[in-house]
Amino acid sequence: MIRLHCALRPRWTSLCFAALLAAGCSSTTTVGGGAGGEDATDDALASDVTPIDDATSDSAADASDDPADDTGHDTTADPPPTDTTGDAGPDDTAPDGPPSPDATADADPGDAGTDPVSDAGDDHGLVAAPAPPAPAFDDVVEHITVTIATATSENAETDDGVRICLADGECWSLDTPDVNDRERGETEVYHRTGLSIPRSALDRMTIESTSGAEDNDRWTPSCIDVRFDGEPVYCNDAIPVHIGTGASRNEVRSWTDPAGLHEACTSCWGERLTHGPLLGPPTESSARLAVRTDATRRVGLRMGTTPDLTDSVVVAWAVPRPEDDFTADLVVDGLRPDTRYYWRVDVDGVPAGSGGEVQTAPVPGTPSRLRFAYGSCTRSIDQPIFDRVLARDPDLFLFVGDNHYANSRRLEALRWHYRRFRRVPERARLVAAVPTLATWDDHDFVENNSNGTCLGRATALQAFDEAWANPYSGTDAAPGAFYATSWGDVDLFVLDCRSYRPDVGDSGNRCDRDPDAPALPRSDGPLGPTQEAWFFDQLRASDATFKLVACGSRMSPEGSTDSWRSFPEALGRVTSVIEDDGVDGVVFLSGDIHRSLFATVPTVRYAIPELISSPLANSTGTCSDTALTRECYDGGNAWVELDIDTTLADPTLTARLLDDDGHERATWVIPASSLR
Question: Residues of the chain with pLDDT > 90: what percent?
Fold first, then answer.
C-alpha cells in the first residue's frame, strides 16, 4: 500500500509530484508504505549543580588587473572576514559540474555511535515512488533568477551599482536591500517576479555598471547564471572582464556575452545541490530532509537499509520552484520505529554527495535515551563550535533563535542570510548528520527586540519555512514558528515567542511598525491567545516523563524587558497550568542573552529549570549573581547538551554546559522525581 501526503508550504505555492499522480501540490512530497514529592524545592535542584573549575579544564577559546588570472569560480580561498553588515560568506568548495550519472555513493557513513538500534532488515517500510515527469516550461517567462559570484582576487568587490540586461528594455539592478552585495568571494541570488515576457524576446546576457563616476569601484565577476521560471538557460564561469568605468586593463562599463544565452557551467554554486541536505526531526515512522537546488530539477530521496545503498529505492520526490528560492522538503512515511536507515539525495538522477544515515524515533511513550543539544545566537561566519557539537553525536539539535542576524523585513535579505549560513562548512556538516529543528528570536524574525506589531511578519515566516525542515508551522488560525515533536518518553514543545508578542515600549525595538497590525494586548503575552491555548492543550495531553519547552526569549522573571519578565500575567498562566493541572517534568530551554546559565522559574509545586544556551558564534555578555541563577558561563561561545534517560527507575535529565572547545563548564543532574 502506498500512502500519499502532499504538504503545502504555507502561504505560497509550489509544485509536488507523488506516486500515481501526474501533477501535485507542493515542493514537499511524502510517500510511504506498510510498516517524589510535590514539595520539591529550589534547593533540592540546586544541590546537583556542579560547577567545573577552570583549573581542571582547558580555557574556553575565545590580485592582478587581468581577470584571466581569476577566471572561473574560485572555490578554494578562505572566506573574507566578517563585517558589520554580516555579509561575508564561505566560498563554494565543491568542484564545478556533477559526477557521472552512473556514479554511486561509495562513502560508508559508519556507525552513529548511539545506543544500539535495529537495522531496517526486510520489513523496512520502504516503497519506491514513481519519478515525476520532467519539468515543463512555458513560452512566456514569469520569473527570472540571476545568480552571480564575485571573484576572490584582491579588490574584486564593489559597492557601486550593477545591472543585467536580457533583452532591449529588460534590464534591472542587481541589488538586495539590507545586504552589502558583491563582496569578495560571495555568491548571491536575485529573483525578478511578476513578469510576462515572451521567451523568444530574451536573447542576451549583458552586465553593466550603473555608476556615474569617471573611475568607479570596479567589480570582478567570476560567474553569472540565469534561470527562466527555474529552467537553466545561461551559465558562464569564465567572465573575461572587470565591470567598471575606469581605464584599467580589461575594465569595461558594459559586457555582452558574444555566445548569447548558453551554458558553459552547471551553476555559479558549482553544483546542482547548492544547500543541504538538512535533516529534519524524524518521528517513529517518518524522516524528512530539506534541500535547495540551483534550478528547477527533479530531486529524489533514495533510502535503503545498508550503508552502500545496494537495496535502496527512491522514496520521495520534489521539484523545487523559484518562488520558494528552489527549496523543498523530502518526506518519507511508513518507516519502522527506532531503526537506522541510510539515504542519499539524487538531483536529475545524479548523486549529490555521499548521503548519510538517520535513525527514526522510538514510539512515543517508550522509555529511551536521548542526547539533545541546542544553542542560539550565530552572527560570526566562523562557527567551529558545530564540529564540537557533532563530535558528541547528539540525536537532535535545536537552533533556539537568532540563527542569523539579517535584522530585516525583506524577503531577499532574509534568504541571503539563510543561504549564507547554510554554506558554513561546520554548520553544514552538523545539519546533514544530526536531525535539526529551529525556532527564531528577534534578529532572525524582523529586527532587534521585534514583536507582533512589526512589518514583515509573514515574510519572515516564508523565509524561515524555506530554510528549515520543521514538522509544521503553527496552526491554520495562528501561523508561526511553533510545533511539537516527540522522542520516546520526551516531548518537545517549540514556541514562537515573537509573532504574537505585544509591544511593551521597549526602546531597543528597531522595527518598522505595521499600521495594520492586529491589536495585541499586553496581557495576552508573547504567545498570543491561539498559540497559548495550543500550548496548554499540548502540555495537558502529554504523558511524557520530560516535557521540554523551548522559546527564543528568557522565561525567568529575572529577564530583561525583552523577555517574559514583561508579561507576568502570561507567565503566571503558564505556571498555573503546570500547578493546577499537575503537569510534571517541565524544563524550559531558551537563548538570546549572550551568556549561558542554569536557573529556575519558581512555582508552588516545583521549581522549573530554565537552561539558557547562548551564544554559539557571537560576542558574550557578563554574568551577574541573581536569586534564581544556579550557574553562569560568560567565557566564550557555548552550547547546552541534555542527556535524558527514561529507562531508569527515577529517570534523569543531565544538563551539561559546554564551551566552544567542548569542555564541560557545569553539570546539573535533574531527577524526574524533583519535577513533580
Answer: 80
Question: For residue 149, which of 86, 222, 206 has the smallest C-alpha distance?
Answer: 222
> Could you give the count of Cα atoms lying within 13 Å of 623 in the half-sphere of its Cβ?
18
Measured distance CA(472)–CA(508) in Å, rounded: 31
Residue type, 50: T
Alpha helix stretches (DSSP H) within 616-658: none
Please classify residue 257 by burial: count the beta carbons closer than 10 Å to its beta carbon, then call 0-12 exposed, 13-18 middle and 19+ buried: middle
Is the peptide bond between 521 and the residue preceding it cis, with omega within 30 degrees of 0? no
Looking at CATH, the fold of the domain delimited by 1-32+119-135+271-360 is given as: Immunoglobulin-like (2.60.40)
Q: What is the pLDDT of residues 485-529, one digit of tens each?
A: 999 999 999 999 999 999 999 989 989 999 999 899 999 999 999
Q: CATH 2.60.60.20 spans which residues of the chain?
A: 142-256
Residues of the chain with CATH 3.60.21.70: 44-56+361-674
Cα–Cα distance for residue pair 551/500, rounded to 1 Å: 13
What digits encode the pLDDT tens for the residues 56-102? Answer: 333 333 333 444 343 333 333 333 333 333 333 333 333 333 333 33
Q: Is the distance from CB of 146 to CB of 225 less than 8 angstroms?
A: yes
Cell of 191: 529573483
pLDDT in tens, 589-625: 999 999 999 999 999 899 999 999 999 999 999 999 8
For the chain, state the CA radius of gyration: 25
Cα–Cα dist 294/92, whole Å: 13
Give CA torsion, residues 213, 253, 232, 5, to 10 deg: 0
Cβ contacts of 63 within 8 Å, gap of 6 or more: 69, 70, 151, 153, 154, 155, 156, 220
DSSP symbols for 328-390: EEEEEE-PPTTEEEEEEEEETTEE-S--EEEEPPPPTT---EEEEEEE--B-SS--THHHHHH
Cα distances (Å, whole numbers) of residue 536 to 365, 530, 573, 580: 19, 10, 9, 12
Using the Cα atoms of residue 583, residue 585, residue 591 and residue 593 in order, give the sign of their dihedral: positive
Range list for CATH 2.60.40.380 in the chain? 1-32+119-135+271-360
Fold designation for 44-56+361-674: Purple Acid Phosphatase; chain A, domain 2 (3.60.21)
CA distance 13 to 26: 7
Cα separation, 650 vs 354, in Å, equals: 41
What is the Cα–Cα distance from 59 to 419, expressed in whole angstroms? 33
Beta-carbon contacts of residue 516 (< 8 Å; ≥ 6 apart): none
Q: Rounded to whole angstroms, how far apart are CA atoms 251 and 257?
A: 15
- How many residues does this entry show for the chain? 676
Domain 142-256 class?
mainly beta
pTM for the model stands at 0.84
Check: CB of residue 301 under 8 Å from CB of residue 330: yes
